[in-house]
């Protein structure tokens, strides 16, 4: 199989540019694509995502990773636009993913139009992948890593948050203090049905693999159990819970190599997408 090549693209997102990396070994033939959705404070070049994309592309699929327009992160991996981060919403993220899928379907990302695709989402990105899969029939397979099961992430903080006008979010990697305005609160209040992650899970019949670390300190393993319990009759759904694994399965940024947990997650993810796409 030919060695994958990397091309970079930019799309118009809800809050700014969407920076896209496409890895594939054949740009002229139609082939399935796998879109990787990062989570809160994440970005396409964080730790494990580039080696994951390379692995997917070497397996014969096209791998597409990107920075959500509300991530605030530029193409170098720097938090260059804290205001975009501050005004980001769940609905904006779903719309960004849908715009990316439309560009793939139209052949606007440097390769033949994509007819079949899968989504991989990590953490908050897992929930966004679930919500997107409910609305877009072009999504044929789903894998979620350490996914949240609800968009209500800040219990008991809304009143003080609205009084102050923002929350202060510390980026542990850089030390930056990022504002998070009340746009996301408004979004959850106005769009409760569209953002009901477990409701979306109950409607999904596409093949879905859920991976979660039992020792995840950021997103409880109980959220994986809640999502898996929402399976409709006849749906192909598999859950793998990794004892002792944390939120990123041992991966760090900058990437320091593959851990045993991450190796298993990579293997199972690639096999799932290869089987169902």
Strand content: 15-25%
* Radius of gyration over C-alpha positions, nearest whole angstrom: 18 Å
Overall number of strands: 10
Distance between the first and last residues' Cα: 18 Å
Give me the oligomer status.
single chain
The top-level CATH class is Alpha Beta
Structural class: alpha/beta
Helix fraction bin:
25-40%
Number of separate structural domains: 1
Count of helix runs = 9
Task: Give the overall average pLDDT.
Answer: 96
In words, what does this structure look like?
The protein is of the alpha/beta class and 277 residues long. It has one domain (5-152, 192-276): Alpha/Beta hydrolase fold, catalytic domain (Rossmann fold, 3-Layer(aba) Sandwich). 32% of the residues lie in helices and 22% in strands. The strands form two sheets. It has an eight-stranded mixed beta sheet, sandwiched between helices. The protein has a two-stranded antiparallel ribbon with strand order 7-8. Helix 1 links the parallel strand 3 and strand 4 (62-67). Helix 3 (90-105) packs across helix 4 (124-135) and helix 4 (124-135) crosses helix 7 (197-203).
Blueprint of the fold:
Elements lengths: L4 E8 L4 E8 L8 E5 L11 H10 L3 E6 L14 H5 L3 H16 L11 E6 L1 H12 L3 E7 L12 H7 L1 E5 L6 E5 L1 H8 L6 H7 L4 E6 L7 H8 L8 E6 L17 H17 L1
Keywords:
two-stranded antiparallel sheet; 8-stranded mixed β-sheet; Rossmann fold; alpha/beta; single chain; 277 residues
């Amino acid at each position: 199989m030919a060695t994958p090549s990397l091309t970079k693209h930019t799309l118009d997102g809800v809050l700014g540019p969407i920076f896209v990396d496409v890895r594939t070994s054949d740009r002229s033939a139609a082939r399935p694509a796998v879109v990787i959705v990062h989570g809160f404070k994440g970005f396409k070049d964080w730790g494990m995502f580039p080696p994951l994309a390379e692995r997917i592309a070497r397996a014969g699929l096209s791998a597409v990773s990107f920075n959500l327009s509300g991530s605030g992160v530029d193409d170098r991996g720097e938090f260059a636009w804290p205001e975009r981060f501050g005004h980001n919403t769940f609905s904006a993220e779903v719309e960004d993913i849908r715009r990316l899928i439309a560009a793939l379907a139209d052949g606007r990302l440097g390769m033949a139009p994509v007819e079949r695709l899968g989504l991989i989402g990590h953490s908050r990105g897992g929930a966004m992948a679930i919500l997107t899969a409910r609305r877009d029939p072009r999504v044929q397979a789903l894998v979620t890593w350490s996914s949240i099961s609800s968009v209500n992430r800040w219990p008991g903080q809304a009143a003080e948050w609205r009084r102050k006008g923002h929350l202060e979010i510390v980026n542990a990697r850089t030390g930056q203090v990022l504002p998070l305005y009340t746009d996301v609160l408004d979004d959850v209040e106005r769009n409760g049905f569209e953002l009901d992650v477990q409701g979306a899970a109950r409607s999904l019949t596409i093949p879905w693999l859920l991976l979660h670390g039992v020792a995840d300190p950021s997103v409880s393993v109980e959220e994986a159990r809640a999502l898996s319990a929402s399976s409709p009759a006849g749906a192909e759904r598999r859950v793998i819970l990794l004892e002792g694994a944390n939120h990123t399965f041992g991966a760090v940024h900058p990437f320091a190599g593959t851990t045993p947990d991450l190796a298993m997650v990579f293997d199972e993810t690639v096999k799932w997408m290869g089987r169902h796409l």
